[in-house]
Amino acid sequence: MTILVTGGAGFIGSNFVLDWLRGSDETVVNLDALTYAGNLRNLASLQGDARHVFVKGDICDRALVGSLLQTHQPRALLHFAAESHVDRSIHGPGDFMRTNVEGTFALLESVRPWWLALDSSAKEAFRFHHVSTDEVYGSLGMDDAAFHEAHPYQPNSPYSASKAASDHLVRAWHHTYGLPVLTTNCSNNYGPYHFPEKLIPLMIVNALAGKALPIYGDGLNVRDWLYVTDHCSAIREVLARGRVGEVYNVGGWNEKTNREIVETVCALLDELKPDPAGSYRRLITFVKDRPGHDRRYAIDARKLERELGWRPAETFETGIRKTVQWYLDHTDWVTEVQSGAYRDWVQANYGERAATA
Ligand code: NAD
Ligand code: TDX
């Protein structure tokens, strides 16, 4: 059996592929365009492993996706590929519309004729699992109840608007064409292989380099944090037993202000790699706020727990300690990502296979 993953060289996608292959002999076909956020280094431990078939390519390329479906006949498609950084979406929304909206549309339209031609049991068994975000629901007040699956969509950034559009497309392809879809909307992830443009890895990497730790606005914006392998286990559960056409919210019940996050990172670094100049807290700097900055996200994950018995394995305390330790142990990964040197490594190790789909 085979699964097709899009965006499997990114942060969550690569964690998912590694996690999946730790517990399964199924082949994973991994379609990724290797944008700045995609890094085959994340999957270096799978080199030579025949269960992992990497294909460099774009989800907008219908001919390519169609041929992958015909060749590999996957029992499921897990759609992670996206432009994912809110700040980048503010400065340049075009790529977000192309990949997140047009790309999801192209993927659905590549899948539909192939899926329709399957025999009835394969058709019934197939799943299109769309990986999405809590940001589609907009911003909560401090006293509001956490987002549940029926919360109205109120996206506020170009990123969240593009993800909201993709969620609606996936929903419509189920209701109109009967495609067996599943959607998960997850809170903020953190953990290994997180690109150092996002809050937690940026703070770790900057602190170790003695650079400023920029906190937007008053730093009291709240995010709900989930360790990435807990997101992976939730996706596995929903894929295995989720009800077709349903949406499941995924979260860790770990609401933290950005100030708390940065102070926790500094305290852990002070313990694990003491700052020669005293404490990394000296680097905290309050900077201009992000335009349209959502105040609070919080996920109500009770449906997932009630229906599928899913619960996160990590607490925030265990997950953030593992994460800080991972970055301390993988300074070479950070250096390569920042310098772009991993692209040379990709060329050397994957050569033509990466260069041509
Ligand atoms: P990421 O930016 O780290 O990785 C995205 C991957 O998609 C990269 O490998 C990139 O090369 C690939 N990609 C981009 N455009 C592509 C295209 N046109 N064709 C093929 N591949 C393309 O993102 P992430 O943080 O791993 O997020 C993965 C998914 O999870 C996204 O859909 C995101 O919206 C969602 N999500 C992320 C979080 C989070 O906290 N990071 C939380 C909830 C949901
Ligand atoms: O330098 C920073 N300083 C700062 O205060 C950065 C990069 C961020 N922040 C703040 C903004 C947010 O309130 O920290 C919070 C987290 O920011 P990001 O790491 O950029 O994540 P966020 O905007 O919350 O979005 C993330 O979670 C949901 C992912 O990037 C999305 O892909 C996911 O859907």
Automatic annotation (TrEMBL):
Keyword Lyase found: yes
GO process annotations (BP): nucleotide-sugar metabolic process
EC numbers, comma separated: 4.2.1.46
Keyword Ribonucleoprotein: no
Cofactors required: NAD(+)
Enzyme's top EC category: lyase
Annotated transmembrane regions: none
Residue ranges occupied by any NAD(P)-binding domain in the UniProt entry: 4-323
Molecular functions per Gene Ontology: dTDP-glucose 4,6-dehydratase activity
Keywords carried by this UniProt record: Lyase, NAD
Reactions catalysed: dTDP-alpha-D-glucose = dTDP-4-dehydro-6-deoxy-alpha-D-glucose + H2O
Pfam families tied to this protein: GDP_Man_Dehyd (PF16363)
Family named by the database record: Belongs to the NAD(P)-dependent epimerase/dehydratase family. dTDP-glucose dehydratase subfamily.
Protein name: dTDP-glucose 4,6-dehydratase
Source organism of this protein record: Roseateles toxinivorans
Lineage, top ranks: Bacteria, Pseudomonadati, Pseudomonadota, Betaproteobacteria, Burkholderiales
